[in-house]
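User: What would this chain look like folded?
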Amino acid sequence: MGSANPTPTEPAGPLTGFTVGVTAARRRDELVALLTRRGARVVEAPALRILPLEDDIALRRATEQCLTAPLDYVVATTGVGWRGWMSAADGWGRGAELAAACRNAVVLTRGPKATGAVRASGLDESYSPRSEATDELLTWLLARPLDGRRIAVQEHGLPLTGFGAALRERGAQVVPVPVYRWAPPEDPGPVRRLVEQTARREVHALAFTSAPAISAFLETAAADGLRERVLEAMSADVLPVCVGPVCARPLLDAGLPAVWPERGRLGALVRTLTETLPSRGRQELHLGGRTLVLQGSALLVDQESYWLSPKGAALLRALARRPGWVLSRAELLRRAWADSDTDEHAVEAAIARLRASLGPHSGLVRTVPKRGYCLATT
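Assistant: Here's the prediction, encoded as structure tokens.
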């Protein structure tokens, strides 16, 4: 991540200079492509993996239970889960029966993806909350007489224990339908490295597409003793961007800020990132009649980009606050290094790497003998 290149890489895009961590398990390739197309560098670190249960005994048992008597309500919580359930039932030769049972019930959907999947299976939803929140589905159900009603609830990765308990308290018979389960990634190394990069503020944003992934990310940080540093980074320099408010709930519960688009789509998430990040990490430098842009970890010169290491970008940003003003090694050490054990020789080495990264623009960083360094103004 952030390797230096002394020549311009490619024409700058709106996210050039920014490094974005992606924790998604599903549709990760699509999200990565959308981000890289706009110039970002992406750290891929799936926080969870999906275990489909098409052949699982629990899913088949739940399906059979749904067919033992008429259903009054059916709750679809995710598009992938609904399609997986219908596909599994078809494989068992029970697809037509299950579709008929759902058609005779009141179908509720949590958000547009679940709605689309339900409609694609030939059914119509009776209610879908605008917020895509499971709580609103529960409120809608609890406003109706439920004693003796049979309700099938398609779960989405984790058991909806509280949802089912609230319905049972009102006398409903609840059939949980576990279509898939979240599990830890087979290789925890990438997410642990992303946690470390977040704690060191070497990524500029984290893109989240599910609440369980956020919880898993924060749990990994806690297990590695980095939770407080990660929370501090995400409250200041690392922007958390979520696909929607339901996804963002674990961040909000932890007291962290988060942004999300009005529509819960990957494209909308990337647009939100593209609109928000540059306003946080972009600095224009007017030097010698030219305008240079320091954006994230890249210097943009005439729409060409020179990627810098995170440390190099921190040094250049410190010098750019007051072009021509000399900063001592000790001052640069204080501004760019969180580790107080680092000595001033690290500054000299980092300045040398920064100049190498800047290539033909290495003269921007000048040495002032016995005093320190400054950003050239001419």
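The radius of gyration is 26 Å. If you want, I can go into more detail on any region.
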